Amino acid sequence: MSTLLVKGGTVVSSTGRTVADVLVDGEQVVAVLAPGSDIAASVTADKVVDATGKYVIPGGIDAHTHMQLPFGGTEASDTFETGTIAAAWGGTTSIIDFAVQKYGERVEDGLSAWHEKARGNCAVDYGFHQIIGGVDEQSLKAMETLIDEGITSYKMFMAYPGVFYATDDQILRAMQKARELGLMTMMHAENGPAIDVLAEQLYNAGKTTPYFHGIARAWQMEEEATHRAIMLANLTEAPLYVVHVSAKQAVEQLATARDKGQNVFGETCPQYLYLSLEEQLGATGDPTWGEFEGAKWVCSTPLRSRAEGHQDAMWQALRTNDLQMVSTDHCPFCMKDQKELGRGDFRAIPNGIGSIEHRMDLLYQGVVTGEITLERWVELTSTTPARMFGLYGRKGVIQPGADADIVVYDPKGHTSIGVDKTHHMNMDHSAWEGYEIDGHVDVVISRGSVLVSDGEFHGRAGHGQYLKRGLTQYLT
Ligand code: URP
Ligand code: ZN
Ligand code: ZN
Q1: 385, 413, 445: which is the final residue of a domain?
Q2: Cα Rg for the chain, rounded, in angstroms?
Q3: For residues 10 and 54, what is the distance between their CA atoms, to the nearest angstrom?
Q4: What is the pLDDT of residues 384-401, one digit of tens each?
Q5: CATH number of the domain to which 10 belongs
Q6: Total of domains in the chain
Q7: Nearest ligand to the C-alpha of residue 242?
Q8: Who lines ligand 1 at CB under 6 A?
């Protein structure tokens, strides 16, 4: 087994920072050494990474991705291979993707199809949540086997009638089962049936462009569903994790429940921190796409109005821990042949944005602007995802015994985002085109292997291993 020394950097954890040398033996961290100590001076290693002047952080964990998801009449454009290579470039060394049980399908079959897609194809480590797309006796029974499979969280949808939608009685039953088993319930909290009525009315009134996706999916739809999910979780005493929160009113619902001691949690995504209904979905004038350009940013929950202050509320919630994590909800679709399906009818635009490559950089801008601290950056992108989803100790921290998933981040570096510049995702556009980022992912190490250094990719599809996860380590 070879040894690796990450030397002289500032090691940042969720609770502090210190200049230290990190010694890796094989796939694991074996020591964090004070520089200048006799022991540090005596250490030799097969390979040395000079991290002087840079941050040394635990590898990012993106706990919400959708590789190859069949959705909206097409399939998410990143494979497990392309998506995890892009993840590695961006300093994310673990993902948790969503295995899908479609309505009418056995959970076991949906899960094995996901293993089939991912096995041998991932450049970074990967785990699964389970989407339960059809809650019935059979799928409730199948939930009992998930923990043995290393899947300790599952997702239901209050949106997308006819696709993944679950009714309140189904949600209640699933939460009761989850409580019994210790599973984390993840919820897409939007009132799907009501949204579909609004969307149809808008379409019939000739309001067909991407902007109206955001109008139909009004914040009231998110607030109401978030409240209902919280109440059902309260009744069943099931822990609840609300995905892709974008409305400030939904955050208020989470905060109120948390103040009362309920185990409810929430994530937001980079798009809800930086992008907006007015600026993106309302975009016009692009010579290629015209007012259809907004399709690039069609996702659900939708981008929200900046005038209403949703973006500022997301940053505040990240500071106050009313929201605990930032994931991407990476669900990329190309404009050509994919987003284009909804030209003339916003309801047919496949929902999703690709950001897996940029999550660490984008959130680091919050450190640069003073929205969050350096330590909180690490907590939101790595340590809490590990704790929330049963990976902590092995992932989410740099300490002896942990997997050597390490990112050397250069705060003096610079990153230009664009489809022709830094982009390795399988997309014909970037939702972040033209973003100029302070900071740069310099070196990425996954289980002791250097995946990225000197602007080159040294990893391979198949390096990534399946992560059997334990129960959440985040409950109060
Ligand atoms: O627009 C989104 N979020 N697409 C992915 C599916 C989901 O709801 O997470
Ligand atoms: Zn969702
Ligand atoms: Zn999603």
Answers
A1: 385
A2: 21
A3: 6
A4: 999 999 999 999 999 999
A5: 2.30.40.10
A6: 2
A7: 2
A8: 66, 188, 244, 299-300, 329, 331, 351-352
